[in-house]
TrEMBL record:
<dbReference type="Pfam" id="PF10103">
    <property type="entry name" value="Zincin_2"/>
</dbReference>
<protein>
    <submittedName>
        <fullName>Coenzyme F420 biosynthesis associated uncharacterized protein</fullName>
    </submittedName>
</protein>
<feature type="region of interest" description="Disordered">
    <location>
        <begin position="1"/>
        <end position="31"/>
    </location>
</feature>
<dbReference type="InterPro" id="IPR018766">
    <property type="entry name" value="Zinicin_2"/>
</dbReference>
<feature type="compositionally biased region" description="Polar residues">
    <location>
        <begin position="14"/>
        <end position="31"/>
    </location>
</feature>
<dbReference type="InterPro" id="IPR042271">
    <property type="entry name" value="Zinicin_2_N"/>
</dbReference>
<dbReference type="InterPro" id="IPR022454">
    <property type="entry name" value="CHP03883_F420-assoc"/>
</dbReference>
């Protein structure tokens, strides 16, 4: 099998968090809508604030990067065998990058810029007479710094991420089909924390992330559809800035009250207060899609046995138990950012996929990639029979 394509990039140093290779391109500020968020400042703030990664010597760094690249390639045939998706046979149109935390944060500022560009342009147009260039610059700097702090926190948590929007960023050289980012310092940190075999853990992670590449290859319409949905949702949220600010303040007060009373914020504790009926419908659809994507990847991840990942049972057990040891502050931040809701997407989506496969087999399940109309709704994610009946399976 041919090696998957990747952008030219020497090894990145998890020890120093260097920002020198496999570096996503600068987003710049040429688009006037970008004045509302200083993306470059967000990326630099994230790089500055991100916790230091594990300390490794030069040889260990090179070995880890080579290992991740090799295992990313090795995982593709397994994804093909498990999913039965022919799209897994050839992923040369997308790329694999092994990155550090700063590079991951930079990549995400580019993706955010792509996803929010239409809504921010509309917002800028409606407020053009009330927003001076100086005010826009100050606002962009504040928002960029805040986003950078969030990305700094997340940059130490993410093991890998498939970015289907990379090619749409300004001045991007990413392949049209997107890129897979494997965050080397985080993978190394977790495998050490769990005390598991590095090669086994890295392959296990790559199985999940490569599945996302295959999903978008199998459903080439999915990227455009998600962009449309994100544009619609962000347009609602940003369409009325004054209303948004009022609701955000109410959400923050509610979150503070729940924490003071000892109650952990529930699913979307802050998001629930940021929704009118149209927003709820848009979020419901995106939640269903993300649950499908994450759940499917988890099913693939869990489908391997000891013949592929020798210590898979130990990895699963220790990885699942890992979240129980999080401190109070981290739990609060995760709730605020909706990360706990994301974890529920993994389990909800996996239950949906398994329920469908049990009835219709993997071939029947794969109808989900045929068209937008075949995507499950949020009620269907929680009751697979609804989707099976709608599909006539």
């Amino acid at each position: 099998m041919e090696s998957t394509a990747r952008e030219s990039a020497p090894a990145l140093s998890p020890a120093t968090q260097s920002n020198q290779a496999a570096q996503p391109n600068q987003s710049g500020q040429s688009n006037p809508a970008q004045a509302l968020i200083n993306w470059d400042l967000a990326a630099s703030a994230a790089a500055r604030l991100a916790p230091a990664g594990p300390v490794l010597d030069g040889k260990a760094i090179g070995d880890a990067v080579d290992s991740l690249r090799r295992l990313a390639d090795a995982s593709v045939p397994h994804v093909h065998e498990i999913t039965g998706l022919e799209a897994a046979r050839d992923l040369r149109d997308s790329s694999v990058l092994v990155v550090d935390r700063a590079s991951w944060a930079k990549a995400n500022t580019q993706s955010f810029a792509v996803m929010l560009k239409p809504a921010m342009q509309k917002m800028l147009d409606t407020r053009r007479g009330n927003l001076s260039p100086a005010a826009a610059q100050v606002s962009g700097a504040i928002t960029g710094s805040q986003l950078g702090a969030v990305l700094a926190f997340l940059s130490s948590k993410v093991l890998g991420q498939y970015d289907p929007f990379a090619a749409l960023a300004e001045n991007s050289t990413a392949p049209a089909a997107g890129r897979l980012l494997l965050v080397a310092p985080n993978i190394i940190s977790v495998e050490r924390e769990l005390n598991v075999a590095p090669e086994d853990f890295r392959l296990w992670v790559c199985l999940h992330e490569q599945t996302h590449r295959v999903q978008f290859a199998a459903a080439p319409w999915l990227r455009h559809h998600m962009l449309e949905q994100i544009d619609e949702l962000s347009g609602h949220l940003l369409g009325n800035v004054d209303s948004l600010m009022e609701r955000a303040s109410a959400a923050a007060r509610s979150l503070k009250d729940r924490s003071a009373s000892g109650n952990t914020p529930g699913r979307g504790a802050i998001l629930d207060l940021l929704q009118d009926p149209e927003e709820k419908a848009a979020i419901s659809h995106l939640t269903a899609v993300m649950s499908l994507l994450e759940g499917h990847a988890n099913v693939v991840m869990d489908a391997v046995d000891a013949s592929i990942v020798p210590s898979v049972k130990t990895i699963r057990q220790r990885f699942n138990d890992r979240g129980k040891d999080r401190g109070v502050i981290e739990k609060f931040i995760r709730s605020l950012l909706g990360l706990d809701a994301k974890m529920r997407q993994y389990s909800d989506g996996a239950r949906f996929v398994r329920a469908v496969v049990d009835v219709a087999g993997m071939e029947g399940f794969n109808k989900v990639w045929d068209s937008v109309d075949h995507l499950p709704t949020e009620p269907e994610i929680h009751d697979a029979k609804l989707w099976l009946d709608r599909m006539g399976l």
